[in-house]
Amino acid sequence: MRKLVLFMHTSLDGFVAGPNGEMDWIKVDDEMFDYAGQRTEQADTALYGRVTYEMMNAYWPTAADQPNASKHDIDHSRWYNKVEKIVVSRSLKGKEISPVEVISANLKQEISNLKKKSGKEIIMFGSPSLGHALTQAGLIDDYWLFVNPILLGDGIPMFKDIKEKVNLKLVAQRIFPSGVTCLHYQKN
Q1: C-alpha dihedral (143, 148, 152, 158), degrees to nearest 10
Q2: Which candidate among 4, 129, 135, 184 keeps its CA 20 to 30 Å from the CA of 88?
Q3: Kind and range of the H or E run holding 56
């Protein structure tokens, strides 16, 4: 069975974005990009909510072609262009977005079926609402949380409406020069 891996930046007080969706507080650097890049190479499928997909698709397909493209831009653009992309969205129901597969209903069953297909890991970046739904459904196997050294006080929570406890095991941690700590948890 394929693993579903969630990558998410969070504030120390557990928010993934500010009250208006702002993410200008997230710290990233080349070392973090390299670390995350090694991880993304383990996946051949990217899973997004509609908003995150639209943001990613506006940049990554041509990021490597820009004259000032960084190593990360080139590497991630190459990865983005070769992986299978799946978008979970009710508003895109029935729309064709080639070569993207859209899931609009039966989320738990559709993701369970996706995990049963042969292939590498399934990775999900951002998409807090989708992360909430998949956590509630017990479908996320690994959490890669990039904890930023900031308290936001309010915003979009990392976890929401969890009905049953989810036992996790810390399998790795890494502190970056920016003060961001990556915590890698696996579901027990």
Answers
A1: 0
A2: 184
A3: helix 50-59
Cβ neighbors of 157 (< 8 A, separation 6 or more) are 14, 15, 16, 128
Q: Token match 């590498």: residue? A: 120
Q: Tell me the per-residue pLDDT of 23-38, one tens digit each, with 9 for 90 and over.
A: 999 999 889 999 998 9
Crossing angle for the helix pair 30-40 and 71-82, to the nearest 10 degrees: 20
Q: How far does the chain reach from its first CA to its final CA, in angstroms?
A: 15
| Biggest distance spanned by C-alpha atoms of the chain | 49
CA distances from 183 to 55, 128, 140 (A): 25, 17, 15
Taking the C-alpha atoms of residue 64 and residue 60, their distance in angstroms, rounded to an integer, is 8
What letter does residue 64 receive in the DSSP assignment? G
Query: Whats the size of the chain, residue-wise?
Result: 188
Residue 92 pLDDT: 77
161: left (phi over 0), alpha (psi -120 to 50) or beta: left
Beta bridge partners of 169: 186
pTM, whole model, 2 decimals? 0.92
The class of domain 4-187 in CATH terms is alpha beta
Contact yes or no for 16/152 (Cβ under 8 A)? no
Amino acid residing at 64: A
pLDDT band at 171; cut points 50, 70, 90: very high
